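Posting for a labmate who doesn't have an account.
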Amino acid sequence: MFDQSLLDILCCPETRGKLKMADESTLSTLNSAIAAGTIKNIGGEKVAEILDEALVTMDGKRVYPIREGIPVLLADEAILLSLEEK
């Protein structure tokens, strides 16, 4: 489980913008796409692991997975939600 008090000090490694917890709707949409095998991260790797938690940039364009309570804030691990950036 992610400690949400860390949100005050974490930021997107690309934009340096603030992050927020992904809501259930975003997680559901992402997990459906992951289950269908249609999601790749910025690094080009297929995302196969279902997300229980994730962080989203304030503009809603990038999602960073949280694995075992630890946010994975690596630029290549981000999942783009905006088609313009792909």
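Reply:
Got it, the structure tokens are right above this. The chain has one helix and five strands.
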